[in-house]
Every structure is written in C-alpha cells, then in structure tokens.
Write a structure and sequence with these properties.
Blueprint lengths: L4 H22 L3 H28 L3 H12 L2 H7 L6 H4 L52 H7 L1
Helix pairs in contact: 1-2, 2-3
Length: 151
C-alpha cells in the first residue's frame, strides 16, 4: 500500500497500542497496571504528533513547532523524556570527542567559523537533512567519517 506519512504513522501507532492492550489484558502485574494508566497519554501523544505532522506537511512550520512544544509541556510527558535521553557526557567526553565539519566556499579562518550562522543571518540558511530552512542547526558526529558522510 502507498500510505501517506500520517496514515503510516497512525497504523504503526495502532499496532503499538494493540500490543499494549494485549499485554494489559493477558497480564495482571505492576507493568500492566502502569501501562493501563498511561494509555490515555499514549493516545494524546499520537494525536499531537499527527497535528505536528499535518502542520509541518502543510508548510506551517511555526505551528508544527508550537504544537510539538505544547505536546511536551505536560508533566506526565516531560518527566519521562529523561528516560529516553542519553546524557551528553555519555556521548562526548575526553575519551569520545564529537566532531563538526562544514562546507564553505572560502577558507575557514577561526574556530568560530565552525559554528552555525548567527540567527540574524538565518535567511542564508538552506534546509538540510535534519533542519528547516531559516533555522540554523549545529550537527555533531562521533567520528570525522560520519561527519564527512553527512556532507
């Protein structure tokens, strides 16, 4: 099937929710109780992500960002974000440096040239793989090879 991005996402969410419901119905333990108590939050997250996607795909980037931000605001959501995040110190420390490369038509003469363009000059920023035109991002990689591949 050729599903739209939103329909594909909704289908995957539906399957995921079905797995959660099956587990809840087949088990009577602490995990099933915790899952049961979070089903509503899962449904709200799905609805909000769909809203973000709809805004983004229609070209209303600001509303997409606003919707995403408001989705993450409730304490029931934000307190769990750390459970899926990796501390930056695990990715970058003395033993594991992060690297940054960038394309330039002119020689880069200072360390500062490696960082993103000032926000006041954001109209020069093009959309890249993980960014939106006009919103500068700083991309880091765990190796020079990874950075080079992203170029």
């Amino acid at each position: 099937k050729n599903l739209t991005l939103i329909d594909d996402f909704a289908l995957k969410c539906s399957k995921f929710r079905g797995c959660l419901v099956d587990y809840i119905q087949e088990n009577d333990n602490r995990l099933s109780l915790r899952l049961r108590n979070r089903l509503r939050a899962v449904d709200i997250m799905q609805k909000e992500i769909v809203s973000c996607l709809e805004c983004f795909l229609s070209g209303d980037i600001k509303s997409a960002y606003d919707s995403f931000e408001s989705m993450l605001e409730p304490r029931t959501i934000s307190r769990h974000i750390e459970n899926i995040c990796i501390p930056l110190s695990d990715l970058c420390n003395e033993d594991k440096p992060l690297f940054r490369v960038r394309k330039s038509d002119t020689p880069l003469t200072s360390r500062r040239d490696m960082f993103h363009i000032p926000f006041s000059q954001r109209h020069f920023v093009r959309a890249q793989r993980f960014s939106v035109a006009g919103l500068p991002c700083l991309y880091l990689g765990t190796s020079l090879y990874i950075c080079w591949r992203e170029m």
